[in-house]
Amino acid sequence: MKKLSLIIFTLFFSLLATAQKDSNKVYLDVGDAKVKKSLLAMPAFLYFGSGKTNSTHIRYGTEIFETIKQNMEVSSYFTFVKPDAFLEDTSKAKLKPKTLEEGGFDFKSWSAIGTDFLIKAGYSVSGSTVKLEIYAYSVKQMKLIFGRTYSAKASDLRQIAHTFSDDFIEALTGKKGMYRSKIAVTVSTKAGQKEIFVMDWDGKNRKQISKFKNISISPAWSPDAKKVAYTSFAYHPKAKVRNADLFEYDLETGKTFMISSKKGINSGAAYHPNGEELYFSISENGAPDIYIYDRKTEKRRKFTDGPLGAMNVEPAVSPDGKLVAYSSDRSGKQPMVYLKKAGSSPKAKPKRLTFAGRYNSTPAWSPDGKLIAFSGHKDGHFDIYLLNVETKRIFKKLTSAKKRVGNTNKWANNESPTFSPDGRFVMFTSDRYGPHQLFIVDVHGKNIERRITNDNKNYEKPKWSKLLD
Amino acid sequence: MSFLKAKLKHDHFKLFLVVSFSTHLLVVALFQIGSLFTSNEAIEIKSAMKVDMVALPDKHQQKPKKAPAKKKVKKPKPAPPPPKPKPKPEPKAKPKPEPKIDKKAQQDAFSKLNQADAFSKLDDIKEPEPEENKESDNDASDDKYKGNQILDGNSLSGLNKMEMNAYYNTLITQVQNEFLAPAFLSQKDLRCSVIVQLDERGYVLRRDIESSSGNELFDEAALSAIDRSSPFPTPPERLQNTIARNKIIFRFPRQ
């Protein structure tokens, strides 16, 4: 009997214990985070040279420093900590933390002023070679993100800065940067002369690639960025005429080849990502049509055919090579942006993409193929617009600027968009200061514009290359 | 006489007591086990009648041109009461047809973009998200008559549930306001969840990463958002016990 009672009581109390049920789980979904810039501190680079201060060498260090700083500012990820806020004596503190190196820096002196990231570097020059030893730290996590030594010829020292910038951005975001990309653009050199130049994304390090000493226009990058196609009004001595022929310049060999010299204008070249085909427009007797040139067979075939004398120009091939966007006035009124399958017959009907504005041209694809930027004309001036390829919606206007010189009541013309290889920026030309200058604007943010060129030359139809790493 | 009877039946009585007690114990046990499988909501006795409204969905005035109506795919929403079979029909997602270009909508959007002070208005224009759970934009020009919201059907206690949801929404808003992530992570698809234990006053007792985003700084941003939101507002009295017992999991999507 007692045993039974014992069992019963144990059962009873154990049941009481299970009366407390397992707690429920509730899922609450928070929306997107508000974005904040990170604080980046980059004290002046230490000079590891020999005792004497060599002013040339100091200049090298300063140029690398300023280039990295500009790259980081353009990324719009960082705000720089002002040097007068630094707690440590950065001219004395070494590049590594004091736990690793005697006389090294203290993470606390940086976290105390709210620094998120710290870049410390020192450089030396031997002969014509510049060597940079640079470390990037995460102050919050008190750890090294990466440390590397870069070296290059003094004539290439901006490459050091751009390479480090790309490495740093990639380490943080997991995505490749755009600092080692190039721009091919038409620049008006003298009165009546235009030449093609290749330059760094920031407008520096220019190299002229057209040599006809006349008018050279509409450059295009090959997919491997080793060649640039462009149009030039070359003189044909036998026929004794000038004709706008299509040429290709090889950046490695410095040689120029002719691709097409059909009578009329051969221009607006765009490479297919397969590198084998070139799309460009030819105008034999007036209205231009787009042709496809096959590099292997050296043959040319039609891609568009009017209709009825319509003008079809400015082809742009999608990054996956399946579609071609171009500008056409086939609707009978103003040029609009159209879309057609790559390689399709001239009879195939294109799909009209834009119905708004009065003149839409120069379509450009984003590297992920999701967006098309184009310049649209409204109220007497051009601006850059973004179109979502899937939904066909024009959802963003990237530019809007009043003229800063002359009649400041007028709106400036912003034209010829081209995307950066990381898809975060669009470069375009703007005449707000008079001559057409190069600017960039961020695609996903608050339309922050930055001026790239600062002279009184005219720049036309820039094209942004892929990342050259 | 009755006393004698009692004495004679003493042994029987003892047996009777034991049997009675055991039976009562068995009944209690059955109820306890039964409660393991049902909700622990307090049973509110109200004089008012509780009615669940099942109302009309949105009405679309179809224009002559063909615009396939895309139905909303219902997002799975787990709720505090255990899963009871819900009689609500789940609309199937049709394979998405290619959206036709709405000329008027494009022209309206274009004009809108060109209004004076276009820049300030740009903050409001967001990039369209991948079309999975949204209705087709083709219906923009169709007339829409907004129907009532369809409630979740006959869950255990409608009023309590509404109050609970209202409270949880204040938690979400508070955490949302404190959720700051570094700009350089904005292009990454990072997701993490934080499991939080609150007490009856709304104070955070514990918060831990349940599933990490893989990025330390993003996880930290999520935890900071919780820390800066604490203490949360005190929950309504009758919900305090439930809230103290619940494990709240905040899910932080990408920027």
Give the structure's gist in a few sentences.
The complex is a heterodimer of chains A (469) and B (255). Chain A has two domains: 38-173, TolB, N-terminal domain (Rossmann fold, 3-Layer(aba) Sandwich); 181-467, 6 Propeller (Neuraminidase), CATH 2.120.10.
Describe what you observe in this structure.
The complex is a heterodimer of chains A (469) and B (255). By secondary structure, chain A is mainly β. In chain A, 12% of the residues lie in helices and 42% in strands. Chain A has four helices and 32 strands. In chain A, the strands form seven sheets. In chain A, strands 3, 4, 5, 6, 7 and 8 form a six-stranded mixed sheet that branches. A four-stranded antiparallel sheet of chain A has the order 11-10-9-32, with no helix packed on it. In chain A, helix 2 runs parallel beside helix 4. Chain A is globular and about 110 Å long. With 255 residues, chain B is α+β, with helices and mostly antiparallel strands. In chain B, the strands form two sheets. Chain B has a three-stranded antiparallel sheet. A two-stranded antiparallel sheet of chain B has the order 1-2. Chains A and B meet through helix 1, strand 1, strand 2, helix 4 and strand 26 of A and helix 2, helix 3, helix 4, helix 5 and strand 3 of B. Strand 2 of chain A pairs parallel with strand 3 of chain B.
Number of helices of chain A: 4
Provide the number of structural domains of chain A: 2
Question: Can you tell me the CATH architecture of the largest domain in chain A?
Answer: 6 Propeller
Helix content, binned percent of chain A: 10-25%
The major beta sheet of chain A can be summarized as:
6 strands, mixed
State the low-pLDDT regions of chain B, or none: 66-95, 117-146, 149-156
- Could you please say which CATH topology of the largest domain in chain A applies here? Neuraminidase
Q: Name the CATH architecture of the domain at 158-252 in chain B.
A: 2-Layer Sandwich
- Radius of gyration from the alpha-carbon trace of chain A, in angstroms: 29 Å
CATH superfamily of the largest domain in chain A: TolB, C-terminal domain
Identify the overall geometry of chain B: elongated
Name the chain pair whose interface involves the most residues. A-B, 65 and 69 residues
Distance between the first and last residues' Cα of chain B: 88 Å
Please identify the structural class of chain A as seen in this structure.
mainly beta
